[in-house]
């Protein structure tokens, strides 16, 4: 039977692959004549089909790959001749066919190499490391080298002719796909060798997201073991390619990346895919050691020196504005990998100089309400956001020193001028959102320098300026896109403030101590902005809902006194929105945020029941306006514990315990009413479930007591789920 299987594979699989490739090449002419829709345009379907190719070709790749090389060798000289003679019709057809062949080659190469993440524990640290693997048989790597050589020659041909004519953009997309697979499999030699040396063991293949049909797997046999790539295999591959070592090949790819950003500057799709390739080269799974080798290339060093629109034209096109962040994030990440100290060497400051020059030029403009100023503001905001995103504890303070105080106030001016333009407001406010996030403790200054406070004041000034303009306009007119015009920017403001509150780099009490109204003013504006959004719209837009409830949770956790000091009408609306979000939001994360906020609020009520401080008295004043709120919140939680299968029970149990301790009378009222709604036969079971809920639970919110209550909640859920025809209305 095994010999029969092998015979079937040897006889039919190469023919199937040949037929697939021939059919794809024939589809070019059929599409050109309008007989079919061009399958080359459906990239998603194309990728799904191609993923199977390397798997069914694995047992006979030497034969199948050799025939693929022959097909390329037949087409490529014809393409070169057509280019030389200027036969536009023939060039167009050949480029589409070559695009198919490049896609097939990319699938074959990519199917042979994997990067698997392995976990290594050093003391208390968990360190993910990446290990390269392959499933090739002896000799397969030489076929890959033959394929790679021809693809790299095609890349250089396309690049050399780009100055006079651009090829079919689909061929460029296919070449990007090939380069992505090539860097995964062949380029990270240093990193792979180091990982192999450290791990001392082989990596296994990652499971495919598209499993092979069982009947096909039975023919091909079990999946082969994925071994780490030996050094001899690397040497053989690059010797066979014949274009130099892995650094030379990497130089070809980096040169192509830079060429794309110049030649295809007006094509947003190609710009995006090129930047994705650059980002994965720098930040990919092979790790910092692999990415650092890019710094040894002259093309990379030139890019870090000459990275502005003057040298990289894609930055000069408004359609590419959203990709500027990715571009500068990648470059800054690469710069941070340099072994020299970026501060001491002056490299980071030199890198920022062109951007600082743009900011200074804008600062000198008396009128920012021009198209040129608008484009510059959007661009520089996105650029700095990308840079900030890649900064660490060493680079963030350095960046802040370069931007403050000369440059950061510009962004408040920009919002004051362009508050009605979502393109400007989103770009600037997203910059503040990035700057506000204290990820990995990067917002760190000398103890004698109030950097965190100054950063917050600048952000608050921008948000307050924007918010006052919006609040002065009233509701969005019917028929207009409220999310684009307003809600998106409001959500970014709320998210920024939530990050500032949780970042722990600002002592907000200092503002109160010294009579500075910055915090009171920005919180008041944000409250009015949030409450200006109709509640059904609020939860309809997931990002806005997440931003609002994150802001509310951060306030309740870190600055509850600020909430209590607000007007009673505002506090009441906030509490009601907690109930509304918990009851109606479809997203689990919104439920979690609401539950946490309720827990903070209810814990304050419980711990301050008998106190007569100004805060506790003011909170009592607020609660008098919503006497049934605690009962409503208890009831929602009691129901959700039974019905919500997605939210962790502990998330729901914590606020319920706090609410019960805050008002046992409300709990008795709620449970009594709930029992009465049940059928007579079910009332005893439901009553016992409520009694058992507080069994053995003390009147405190300590961790151990919460654990006891959680165990009771788990039993409560099981008991009520066992009640037939439970009425949860």
Task: Give your account of this protein's structure.
The protein has 729 residues and is mostly helical. 70% of the residues lie in helices and 3% in strands. The chain has 36 helices and two strands. The protein has helices at residues 2-32, 43-50, 53-56, 61-85, 88-110, 140-161, 169-187, 189-199, 214-220, 231-241, 246-263, 268-283, 288-292, 298-305, 324-336, 342-345, 347-364, 371-390, 395-403, 409-418, 422-436, 451-471, 482-503, 509-513, 518-531, 535-540, 542-558, 560-564, 568-584, 588-607, 614-623, 629-643, 649-662, 664-676, 680-693, 703-721; strands at residues 113-122, 125-134. Strands 1-2 form a two-stranded antiparallel ribbon. A hairpin with a 2-residue loop joins strand 1 and strand 2. Helix 11 packs parallel to helix 14 and helix 12 (268-283) packs parallel to helix 15 (324-336). The protein is globular, with a radius of gyration of 31 Å. It starts with a helix and ends in an 8-residue tail after the last helix.
């Amino acid at each position: 039977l095994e010999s029969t299987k092998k015979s079937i594979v040897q006889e039919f699989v190469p023919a199937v692959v040949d037929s697939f490739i021939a059919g794809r090449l024939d589809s070019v002419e059929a599409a050109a004549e309008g007989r079919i829709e061009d399958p080359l345009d459906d990239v998603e379907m194309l990728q799904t089909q191609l993923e199977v190719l390397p798997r069914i070709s694995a047992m006979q790749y030497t034969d199948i790959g050799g025939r693929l090389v022959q097909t390329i060798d037949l087409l490529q000289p014809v393409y070169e001749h057509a280019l030389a003679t200027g036969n536009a019709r023939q060039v167009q057809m050949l480029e589409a066919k070559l695009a198919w062949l490049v896609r097939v080659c990319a699938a074959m190469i990519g199917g042979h190499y994997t990067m698997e993440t392995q976990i290594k524990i050093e003391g208390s640290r968990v360190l993910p490391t990446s290990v390269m693997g392959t499933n090739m048989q002896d000799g397969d790597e030489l076929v890959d080298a033959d394929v790679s050589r021809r693809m790299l020659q095609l890349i250089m041909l396309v690049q050399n002719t780009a100055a006079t004519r651009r090829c079919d953009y689909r061929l460029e997309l296919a070449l990007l796909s090939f380069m992505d697979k090539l860097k995964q499999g062949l380029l990270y030699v240093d990193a792979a060798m180091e990982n192999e040396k450290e791990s001392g063991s082989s990596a296994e293949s990652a499971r495919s997201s598209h499993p092979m049909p069982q009947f096909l797997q039975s023919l091909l046999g079990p999946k082969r073991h994925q071994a780490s790539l030996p050094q001899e295999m690397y040497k053989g591959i690059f010797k066979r390619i014949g274009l130099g070592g892995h650094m030379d090949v990497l130089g070809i790819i980096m040169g192509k990346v830079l060429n794309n950003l110049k030649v295809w500057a007006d094509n947003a799709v190609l710009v995006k895919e090129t930047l994705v390739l650059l980002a994965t080269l720098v930040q990919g799974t092979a790790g910092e050691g692999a990415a650092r080798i890019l710094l040894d290339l002259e093309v990379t060093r030139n890019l870090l020196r000459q990275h502005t629109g003057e040298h990289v034209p894609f930055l000069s096109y408004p359609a590419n504005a959203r990709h500027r962040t990715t571009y500068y994030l990648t470059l800054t990440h690469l710069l941070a990998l340099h072994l020299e100290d970026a501060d001491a060497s002056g490299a980071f400051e030199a890198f920022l100089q062109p951007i600082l020059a743009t900011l200074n030029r804008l600062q000198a403009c008396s009128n920012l309400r021009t198209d040129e100023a608008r484009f510059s503001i959007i661009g520089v905001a996105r650029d700095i956001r990308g840079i900030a995103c890649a900064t660490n504890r060493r680079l963030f303070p350095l960046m802040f020193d370069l931007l403050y105080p000369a440059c950061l106030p510009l962004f408040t001016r920009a919002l004051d001028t362009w508050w009605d333009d979502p393109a400007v407001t989103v770009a600037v406010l997203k910059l503040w959102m990035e700057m506000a996030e204290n990820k990995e403790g990067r917002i760190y200054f000398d103890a004698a320098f109030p950097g965190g406070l100054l950063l917050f004041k600048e952000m608050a000034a921008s948000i307050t300026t924007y918010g006052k303009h919006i609040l002065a306009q009233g509701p969005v007119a019917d028929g207009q896109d409220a999310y684009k015009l307003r809600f998106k920017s409001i959500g970014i403001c709320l998210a920024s403030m939530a990050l500032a509150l949780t970042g722990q780099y600002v002592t907000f009490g200092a503002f109160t101590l010294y009579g500075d109204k910055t915090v009171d003013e920005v919180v008041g504006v944000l409250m009015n902005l949030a409450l200006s959004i109709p509640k059904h719209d609020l939860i309809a837009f997931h990002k806005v809902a997440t931003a609002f409830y994150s802001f509310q949770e951060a306030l309740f956790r870190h600055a509850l006194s600020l909430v209590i000091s607000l007007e009673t009408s505002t506090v009441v609306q906030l509490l009601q929105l907690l109930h509304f979000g918990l009851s109606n939001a479809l997203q689990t994360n919104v439920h979690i945020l609401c539950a946490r906020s309720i827990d903070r609020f209810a814990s304050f009520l419980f711990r301050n029941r008998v106190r007569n401080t100004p805060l506790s008295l003011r909170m009592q004043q607020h609660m008098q306006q919503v006497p049934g709120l605690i009962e409503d919140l208890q009831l929602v939680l009691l129901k959700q514990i039974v019905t919500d299968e997605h939210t962790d029970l502990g998330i729901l149990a914590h606020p319920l315990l706090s609410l019960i301790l805050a008002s046992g009378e409300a709990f008795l009222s709620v449970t009594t009413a709930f029992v009465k709604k049940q059928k007579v036969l079910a009332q005893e079971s439901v009553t016992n479930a409520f009694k058992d809920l507080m069994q053995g639970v003390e009147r405190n919110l300590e961790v151990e007591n919460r654990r006891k209550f959680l165990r009771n909640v788990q039993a409560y859920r099981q008991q009520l789920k066992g009640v037939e025809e439970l009425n949860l209305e």
